[in-house]
Amino acid sequence: MLTSFKTSVSVPVLAASLALLGACQSNSSTQETTATTAPQADTAAAKKPLSEPLVRDIYTADPSAHVFGGKIYIYPSHDIEADIPENDKGDHFAMRDYHILSMDSINGKVTDHGVGLDVKDIPWAGRQLWAPDAAFKNGTYYLYFPVKDKQDVFRIGVATSKTPTGPFKAEPTPIAGSFSIDPAVFTDTDGQSYMYFGGLWGGQLQRWQGGKYNPNAAEKEPNSDVPALNARMAKLTPDMKKFDGPVKEVVILDENGKPLQSSDNNRRFFEGAWMHKYNGKYYFSYSTGDTHLLAYATANTPAGPFTYQGVIMQPVQGWTTHHSIVPIKDKWYIFYHDTQLSGKTWLRNIKVTELKRRADGGIETITP
Ligand code: FUB
Fold this sequence. Notes:
five-stranded mixed β-sheet, 4 helices, four-stranded antiparallel β-sheet, mainly beta
């Protein structure tokens, strides 16, 4: 069960043991068992994480990084201690605002620009400001954010600013037709922007079968041999504030061209979508949730269908894993988070490391 797993991996040694084992595991209960019986090999390496937290005076997570005007801007969640017990719906992630961060270079100083958007300034919002993303077009910066509305249903909103660090002003209503969590906005080389979004369990995606919210639907997706529930994507209008056309499913196929199954926890989409383009190919990357991997699939068009390719990052310390991938100068970087500073799954810290590719464009797996 999710809650007990979270508790069981809150120390670095077990997290590193999981990292060695992650890709071979078939489901979350296997992972729990393996984690508690894994030999503590490689102890020295296990104690040293691949990279250090970018910020230490506040807790940050879900980093969406972008380069605007030659500078690196990071749009993370701002984790807080709300003293809410952990559950599978993620109520303990009770964030209330966003702090926007910037860096002149990858190893440079990180500046915290303070609160860019507060939940109290979003007219339709109820609670839980989760993973955001940002975009720039026609002289305006856009901040996309998931938050529960006053009926406790996750929707996606947009706020605008003339500067990348805000303050951002939220539109009076959520984006029409939006639902669930974790918006990631990708602008293609032809200028068309798309939003990828969705998340299972606490992200409520499984409650949106047939395009309508069902408050009585299960809290989790079916763990059986039926096609997996997919992330969603939609074109954005030129003003970046609406969906331009229908919401579509981001279908991920296996090596035989069959849709991934719901029971395929090591490969199916769970949350935390990201899109980037490399050498003309579209790379859709995401978290596998209860198996704690960052995985990716590729396609020849932004709408897919995508074909599963492999693991980008083995499990980090903490239950959630969430990332963004961005080119900076002549290299590619992955921004991600773990719980190195707190050991608590809801108090995370963001990090960055280089993303390396094989000659065929495949991504080398990172052990964090
Ligand atoms: O930060 C809250 C949620 O945790 C995010 O929306 C998910 O992607 C996971 O990182």
